[in-house]
Every structure is written in structure tokens, then in C-alpha cells.
Amino acid sequence: MNYEVRGCKDNACLLTLHGNSTATMENWTEENNALCKTFVFASFEAAMLFMQKATPHISQLNHHPEWRNLYNRVAVRLTTHDAGNTVTEKDRELSRVLDGVFATMEE
């Protein structure tokens, strides 16, 4: 999948998705000991569906994001509290999972 960065604000990038392929930790920023990204959807309902589809994967990994929804956007912040609030492989793995869920929604 090709991502077009439309701009960054509050440590997260707004993205537009084009094409088909496997998403792998694209356009995440690392700031203040966290990985951050904002996913943008066509509607509020699509943003909520993304959060619902991601929930089982998050539970399976037992690594929960800080995330918030504002209409058609879901802002995500990943950090590992058990490791002193730093970015670890757990965060990178969850970022790839979230990118994968996002990719399935655009197919």
C-alpha cells in the first residue's frame, strides 16, 4: 500500500491510502518515547469499525494502545509502560498489526 502523508500535527501524521500491498509500520513517528500515528477514514463509522477490528489483536498481544477518536480519525500512541515508558518491540509489533487492520479496511 502506498501512503501519502498529508501533514503532521500533534506528533501524528494524517494519511491517505492508495493501492494494495502489505502495510509495515509506515509513517509512524517516534517522539517523547512513543510511536505515534493518526489513521484517517472516510467516516466516523469507519473509524469506529477500525477500533473494533483492532481490539481482538490488541487483546491477543496484551499490549494496549493509548488511542482517541475524533470523528473520522483515530490517533494512536504506543509506548511500553513496563519498560519505563519507552518504545520496545511490543510497540513496533502492535504498529504493524494496526497498519495491517487499516489495510484490510481499504481493500
Question: Any overview of this molecule?
Answer:
By secondary structure, the chain is an alpha+beta fold. The protein has a single domain (2-105), classed as Transcriptional coactivator/pterin dehydratase (Gyrase A, domain 2), CATH 3.30.1360. Helix content is 33%, strand content 34%. Helix 1 packs antiparallel against helix 2.
Please sum up the structure shown.
By secondary structure, the protein is of the alpha+beta class.
Topology:
Layout: E1 2-9, E2 12-18, E3 29-31, E4 34-40, H1 44-61, E5 66-70, E6 73-78, H2 89-105
Antiparallel strand pairs: 1-2, 3-4, 4-6, 5-6
Helix pairs in contact: 1-2
Assigned CATH superfamily: Transcriptional coactivator/pterin dehydratase
Shape: globular
CATH topology title = Gyrase A, domain 2
H and E string: EEEEHEEH
**Mean pLDDT over the residues:** 79
From the N-terminal CA to the C-terminal CA, the straight-line distance is 10 Å
Number of helices: 2
Helix content: 25-40%
